[in-house]
Amino acid sequence: MRLTTFSAATDRDTLDALEKLKAQNKGKKLDGLVLDLRGNTGGLLDQAMLMVSHFISDKQYGGNREAAIILSEEKRGEVTPLANAMGARDMLDGAPILILVNGGSASASAIGAGVLQLHGRATIAGVEHSFGKGSIQQIKTLVSGKVLRITTAQYLIGSRGCEKAIQGVGVQPDILLKPKQGELVATAGEKELEHSIPTSTVSSANCKYRFSVPAQDRVKALEMLSAFGLELAEPVKTQ
Prior knowledge:
Blueprint: H1 10-24, E1 33-36, H2 45-53, E2 69-75, E3 78-84, E4 97-101, H3 108-118, E5 122-126, E6 135-141, E7 147-157, E8 164-165, E9 175-176, H4 215-227
Parallel strand pairs: 1-4, 4-5, 5-9
Antiparallel strand pairs: 2-3, 2-7, 6-7, 7-8
C-alpha cells in the first residue's frame, strides 16, 4: 500500500485498501503489510494519526492512556500531550508491518511511521533517514492581505515521559537498504535549512514504557524486503 500524501480522503482510502487486500486473501489474516511512504512529504496530520490508530489496538496498553500517547507538542520546553493511539481494533490483527521511508518522507508521514516504530508495531526500512521536519506553524493574515507563517512549537512522538523528537533528526531506519541503481539519496535534511529550529532537548532517560518489534515480525520484514527486490546495506540481527 503506497501513500503519496495525507489528504482528507486518506483514512477512507486506507480502510478500503485494507478491506480489498483481505478480500483478495479470502478473508484470512494477512501475512504482513508493506506501507510505502517514500517521497510522502506529509499533508494532514490528523489523517496520519487515524492511520496509526487502525494498526494499534487499545489492548496493547491495557487501557493505560499515558502509555498510549503518541503525539505531543513542545513549546518553550513545556510538553503537552495531543493525541493517543487507542484504536478500537488492529485492522491487521497483529500482522507485521514494514514501512519504507527515504529523505523525501517528511512531516505527517514521518510522524506516523515513527509512532508505529516506537510502539513496536512496525519495522522501518530505507536508504536513509526521513527528512526531519517536526515543526508547528501558525498562519496569520496581515491587514495588507499578505500571510505570515510563524513557527511556534515542535511535535514529539512517544508515550508520556518517553517523548522523542522528529525535528532535525527524522525517523531512523531499523534496516538500512542499498540504494538502487540511479536512485537519488538526499544530501540534506531539515536541520541543514537556513533558520531551521533546533531539535528538542526533552529527555526520555526515565522512560517507563518501552516497546519493541517481535523477533518474528523482524524476520517477516526481511522476507518482504526480499520479495520486493530491496537489498540490505548491512546484515540485520533478528534476535
